[in-house]
Design goal:
With 184 residues, the protein is α+β, with helices and mostly antiparallel strands. Helix content is 46%, strand content 25%. It has four helices and six strands; from the N terminus they run H-H-E-E-H-E-H-E-E-E. A four-stranded antiparallel sheet has the order 3-2-1-4. Helix 1 crosses helix 2. The radius of gyration is 24 Å and the shape is flat. 3% of the residues are buried.
Length: 184
């Protein structure tokens, strides 16, 4: 396939994508602003309220189940710095290591079985930054990966169920429940 044929195919694809986008916006506008728009808005609001209620019920159930988790205090150590995605850097973290944190995570997964899906790729970490805009990912990542962290250790005597509200002016974290170790 020559370059002109590829360009023509690429342009057709772009036009099709723009057309699909315009059609979607028009359909959504009609759905909410058309002759049955008010009825659709009421259904959407009722659905949103129901979903919020379902989430609150799940959180209450999770709180009760997690109260039954028994664990002893354990040590963790700081590891390397990293990001979840090098393509879209939205979180910079420092890794936590130590056997105890993975044992606790398994107990949490087991306690919440049937309520939430099991964690497929648990990565123990502490979020240290949420960059809003990265102008040069390569420079940031090169610098980040050169930083050598001190292998500090600390003792975990409790864990928390937290909520995270990501707002435009920054995240807001609230403690929902606190769970203490059996033996500190």
């Amino acid at each position: 396939m020559n370059n002109k044929t590829q360009e023509k195919g690429s342009n057709i694809m772009k036009i099709a994508m723009i057309g699909a986008g315009i059609t979607s916006v028009a359909a959504a506008a009609y759905f909410f602003l058309g002759s049955k728009g008010e009825e659709h808005k009421k259904h959407l609001k009722a659905w949103a309220i129901k979903m919020k209620g379902d989430i609150i019920e799940k959180i209450e159930e999770a709180k009760e189940r997690m109260k039954k988790i028994e664990f002893d205090a354990f040590d963790v150590h700081l590891g390397e710095l990293g990001v979840f995605s090098e393509r879209f850097v939205s979180i910079i973290w420092i890794k936590l290591g130590g056997k105890g944190i993975f044992e606790l995570q398994k107990k949490v997964d087991d306690a919440l079985e049937g309520l939430f899906d099991k964690e497929k790729r648990f990565m123990s970490h502490v979020t240290i930054a949420r960059p809003k805009k990265v102008f040069d990912k390569k420079i940031l990542l090169d610098y980040l990966y050169k930083i050598k962290t001190k292998k500090e250790c600390f003792n975990v005597k409790e864990f928390f169920l937290k909520s995270s509200d990501l707002r435009e002016d920054g995240p807001v974290y609230l403690t929902i429940e606190e769970y203490a170790a059996e033996k500190a």
